[in-house]
Amino acid sequence: MADQEKSPEREDLAQIIESARRLGIELDEAEAMQWLTAMAATEARQGVVVDERAGVFGHSMAMLDFSPEDLAHFRAIGRLVEFEDVPGVVETALALSGSAAQSKIQTYPGDADYFERVNIRAETREAAGRLLADLMRQKALSTLQAPTHQLIEVKFGSYPFDFVRDGRSIAAGSPIAWGPKEIEAGKIEGFTPDGRPASVLWDEVAQDPGWCKLDWVVADPGRHRLANASNMLDVTWEAPDGTITPLDSYLDPYFQEVYLDATSVPIFAKLAKHVSADALENYVAELTHEVEKYLTRDLNYGKVAKRLYNIFRLTGRYPEAAFLRELFDEPATMLYQVWSLIRTVDDATQPDSGMPMEYVLDQADELILAVTRALEGEQETEIVRYLLRLRDSLTRQRSGQTLIPEAEAARAEVINLVNNFFREKLLALPAIRQYMEDLQAG
Predict the structure, then answer these.
(1) Residue 29 domain boundaries
(2) Structural domains counted in the chain
(3) 26-54 pLDDT, tens per residue?
(4) Do 420 and 397 share a structural domain?
(5) Structural domain ending residue among the three candidates 217, 243, 275
(6) Same domain, 288 and 267
(7) Distance of CA 400 to the CA centre of its chain
(8) C-alpha Rg value of the chain to the nearest Å
(9) Of 16, 36, 52, 102, which has the fewest Cβ atoms less than 10 A away?
(10) Are residues 72 and 171 in the same domain?
(11) For residues 301-308, average pLDDT
(12) One domain, residues 358 and 422
């Protein structure tokens, strides 16, 4: 028993518990040890786990963090974002990703993020590209706008040459973001760097689809709030001889996805066999690059915390992951909902947006009340004051119009406050602080 008490795992956990206590975070030692033990067992027998009762499946590590409690809600949004199978031609497997797939630990998740594997059977790669272009355009046009949703943009293709769009210079090879009107027209108008008129055509970029992603803002009348929903596609071409080729040259791994329909296990299994042996390394490198970005250029310590959790749990740094896991189960981390509120504000103020501003106000009210119930003292007073200032400015904001200056200023204040909150929590644990400082040092 004495040896067990002095084990490195328990010593690391003791340090983490002490750091959590300094921050006022209640970390249950028995629950943390149970999770550490489960992670160690999962690492020894990695594979895919099926929850037959809920009808979902995913990587064993991902399933440890998933709760089916809000599954009906996410399946309802999934019906909007998903692509349909076409017998003998298109096979799909839709999954939750991001914080929605980690609902057991993230009591206050952000957006409704989805990931979908789309396998296209065609005679040639060119034919598969044309079919993908048709599928994505049809999906976008059929979901442009309704009382409960609005399409924001679609990422599809790469710029074939240097392009000037809306006064911005864009390098050849950059991903293309299409607005609703451009999708309807099937082209983007702009200029070459030397000032000549130029167009990028939807059909012409189909052979280099690159990053394929669709974004909507969704109104939930029952909850009287707005949410952001996205679907990132991983598209593959299956040749007549059975060869599988990713259309963006890379088959995504499956370490953070929970698939919503157990009947899609066969298509998932067929594609998973072709995931690179270096997939885990590449995925961690990609997450690390994102952490660097959110630490240096696009400051967002909430996103840093979420990505660090995934890096640590996938690289065996379980004590640090246990600390972040507990952090995201704390009432105070409802402040992560601020990012969701900010994004819905931005979406509702896009030109031609028809999403009701009263839903944004209701969402702000709900967040203010939740903060008031959960937090205490000076921290609550300061946060509520800034949120009320933002909410007050939004009462004079009209849907579909550019954010007014006072709302823009209040938005910046709230973002800064939330960033400071998460930064303080991350720096409290020496191991995480050192990891962040090493990344910032380059």
Answers:
(1) 7-45+278-442
(2) 2
(3) 666 777 777 777 777 766 556 888 999 99
(4) yes
(5) 275
(6) no
(7) 24
(8) 23
(9) 52
(10) yes
(11) 90
(12) yes
Structure tokens that stand for 287 in this block: 């997450």
**The model's pTM:** 0.83
Q: What pLDDT does residue 332 have? A: 62
What's the rounded Cα separation, in Å, for the pair 304 and 294? 6
Residue 289 shares a structural domain with residue 269: no
pLDDT of residue 2: 43
| Complete DSSP assignment for 274-301 | TS-TTHHHHHHHHHHHHHHHHHHTS--H
Which of 222, 246, 275 is the last residue in one of the domains?
A: 275
Contact 28, 13 (CB under 8 A): no
Which own/partner contact pairs does 425-433 have at CB distance under 8 Å and 24+ positions apart? Answer: 425/23, 425/25, 425/305, 425/327, 426/301, 426/304, 426/305, 426/308, 428/19, 428/22, 428/23, 429/16, 429/19, 429/320, 429/323, 430/15, 430/19, 431/317, 431/319, 431/320, 432/308, 432/320, 432/323, 432/324
User: Quick one: 229 and 82 in the same domain?
Assistant: yes
Mark whether 193 and 339 lie in a shared domain.
no
pLDDT more than 70, % of the chain = 87
Bigger pLDDT: 235 or 383?
A: 235
In a domain, 113, yes or no: yes
Sign of CA dihedral 198, 200, 205, 206: negative
Length of the chain: 442
Indicate if the pLDDT at residue 419 is higher than 80: yes
CA 338, chain centre distance (Å): 15
Mean pLDDT score of the chain:
85
Examine the domain organization and report whether 106 and 159 are in the same domain: yes
- Distances in Å between the Cα of 233 and the Cα atoms of 29, 84, 98, 132, 309 are 39, 13, 14, 10, 24
pLDDT tens digits for range 309-332: 999 988 888 888 888 887 776 666
Largest CA distance in the chain: 78
Q: How far apart are the C-alpha atoms of 347 and 228, rounded to whole Å? A: 9
Run of H or E residues at 138: helix 125-142
- In angstroms, the first-to-last Cα distance of the chain is 43
